[in-house]
Every structure is written in C-alpha cells, then in structure tokens.
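Protocol step 6 of 9: fold each sequence in the batch and record its structure tokens directly after the sequence line. For illustration, a two-sequence batch is reproduced in full.

Sequence one:
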Amino acid sequence: MTQASNIPFPATRWSLVAGARAASDPARKRAALEELCRLYWLPIYGFLRRRGLPAAEAQDAAQGFFLSLLEEDLFAKAKSETGKMRSFLLGALQRWQRGEWRKGQAEKRGGGQELFSLDVMAEEDSFEAAGPEDETPERHFEKSCAMVLLEAAMQRLEKEQTAAGKWATFHTLRPLLAPLGGQVPLVQEVAAQRLRLTPEALRVALHRLRKRFAEILRETVADTLANPTGEAVQEEMDALRAAFG
C-alpha cells in the first residue's frame, strides 16, 4: 500500500502545460511557464550547448524559446492524448530553432525580457558535469530530463521525511538511494554507526526509504504524461533507467 503523505505533490511537468492551456488569465499562464522554465532550463540549455552554441547564445536562445511558448501559445498545440513532457519540449525547441531562432530574429530570442534571474556559473557547472563532450544533444537532453525527475522526487521525499521527524535518517541514507550527482557512496556499516542502528535495523530502514522513493519517483514520472496509464508510466520508467545506462 502506498504511504499516505501530507506533502502536496508539486504542480509540475504536464500538469503545468495543462494549467497553462486552460488558464484564461495571462498572469496564471505566465506563472505556469515560469515554473516550467525553472524545472527544464538546464535540459534545454544543455541541448543548445551540445548543438554548438556558446554559453551566452545558448542562454539567450533558451530564454527566447520559453518566451515563445507563452507568446505563441504553443501549449495549445500539445497533444494531451499522447503527450510526454520531454518529447513535447524537445520537439517544440527543434521547431522553434528552425522557424525562429535561425532566422536571426532577435526579438524572438528574448528581446531583453527575462522570465527570472539566471545563475550562469551554476548553469555551466551543471552542464559540464552532465556528460562527456561527445555526447549527442538528444542523449544529453534525455539524461538531463531524467536528472530533473530524480531530483524532484528526492526533494519531495526529503520534505516528507523531514515532516515525519526523520531528517537525520534521510540525510544519512540519501547517498544510497539514487545515482544523483555529487553524492558520495556510503557503506551501510558506516550508516548504521552514524544512526546508532543494528545492521538489521539499518537494512529495514533503507528498504523502506528505497520503496518510498520508488513510489514517489513513479508518481513524478506519471506527472510527465498527459495520459499516465500503467503501461505508459512503465515505459517512461524504463526510459529513465536507460538514460543512465
């Protein structure tokens, strides 16, 4: 049985597209776009960098792309019956590059507007750590999107565990949950010593945390789909694993 949680599930991914499509208030539509931009900025930025754009131009192009989603109402063109967030964004970006950015229309590349302030150094650090230089733009995009999902699921699990008074256990066992960047492998014996648990109690705690993380990750993946059937969710879970294969 899935564990109940008082932590609200974040309005992310396809639900943001649906909200933007349905919103009649421009402010609500823009708010949905801003959140989508924050979530998927690095996959889009990394794809453009892998396409050969210098950092400043990739930043400008990514900003312009997200603005075009709002200005041209590309949300309305999303096919809700077959939609996958990563496919929708990548396809929209490629069409936008061909139809707008390559024409050199500066106003379509942001025109001096900003959705939010950008940390260029953080972007470059994340971009450099995301994969080898010869990685294809598409492969880089898939891996970056997978990282977005893993990090979103991990953040939700952290909030849930903190609310339950289990932050210390979560913080100690987090490196054993998923292959997220920056985490140092931790042997279970050391974790047991830090938490003052017997080896058996540690294994039980780790099993429960991994199970809950898997449940949250599956829910997070489902939210990237317009029609999250069991088969569709499993297909995306397989794609997520393949991104790190």
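Sequence two, same batch, same settings:
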Amino acid sequence: MLTLHHLNDSRSQRILWLLEELGTPYEMRRYQRDVETRLAPPELKEVHPLGKSPVITDGDRTIAESGAIVDYIIRSYGKDAMMPPPGSADYEAYNEWLHYAEGSAMLPLMLNLYVGRLKEAGAPLHPRIDSELANHLGYVDRALQGREFFVGASLTGADIQMSFVGEMAKVFGRLGPYRNLAAWLERMHARPAFQRSVAKGGPYRFA
C-alpha cells in the first residue's frame, strides 16, 4: 500500500489532500518538526537521503519532490481523473503548472522567508524580492481570471501543486491585490477532501 511520510506544516499536506480527493487507500506515517529549529526530524533520512517531506513509498518505489509525487499518484491511481488527456493543449498547460509551482513561483516566497530572518541585514534585497513576488503572483492571478481551476473545468493536479504557493502568499500577507488567487485558494480550502486532509494530518498553519 502507498505510504505518505507526512511532516506537519509542510508541502506534504497537499499530497494528503490529493489522496483524499482520489479516495486512494494509503497509510500515513507522521513526523513532527523540531519546535525550536522547525527542521524535520532525522528519522526522515531513513526514508530518503534528503530527509525532506513530502516523500512516498509504494512497494519498492520511494519518490520525493511534490511535482513528481503528484504526477505519479495521478497516473497510478487517478483512473483518468485529475489530469487532462496527454497530448492535449490542456495537458501541456497542466504540466507547465506542475513544474512552475516549485521551479519558479516558490523561489521569491522562500527568499522572502529567509531574507526576512536577516532583519536589517536583508533590507537591500527586499525591493527585488517584492518585485518578483508581484511578478509571479500577478501572473498567477491573471491566469485565474474567470476560471474556477487552473486547467479545464474541474480540479486537477495543477490545483493541488499550486496550493502551497497560494498558502505561502497568504501567510506572508501578500494576497490582498490578487483577488482571483485569493478566491481560488478559499474555494480549494472549502473542499471536503481538503478539510478531511487537515483533520487527518493535524493542525496546518497554512489553512
């Protein structure tokens, strides 16, 4: 059976949400961040050398990286749900969002997090970070204009993968100008499967 190695307050929440949306049988092993350092416990390195989450095991397979996990679960267990037909225009857009979330959108958000910890020493970097945040959040917001989901007329893995981008922007107080993104995130969090994922995964500060 597929096992999700779930770290609290992490990207693995969206994998738990995906599993709940699909109704895929799974087991969950919980890991807790250190309350002071907020780092993952060393036990996760016994699952994958990076010691990060999300990571899944499925038989003799161990898969890390959110996009790879979303893709694997949908292809293996989705039964043609939550993914456009390969070769279609929607599929290419879907695949782009899967990569864009972590490959581009998360970079300025993570820089905002870590540079913020430098306090005054990080001040010279904030204008560039703010510019990139506006660039990416504006791009995402425009993509959601008049749309309920990122691709097509129903939930796909693109929405799952992009959820952490919206959640981080919300935590940083950056969603104000981006009404389409804010409304989309509210819709995603209202879904019964997302609510179940939080109930099963434990308190989630980004919800």
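Proceed to step 7 once all outputs are recorded. Observation for sequence two: The domain at 89-191 is CATH 1.20.1050.10 (Glutathione S-transferase Yfyf (Class Pi); Chain A, domain 2).
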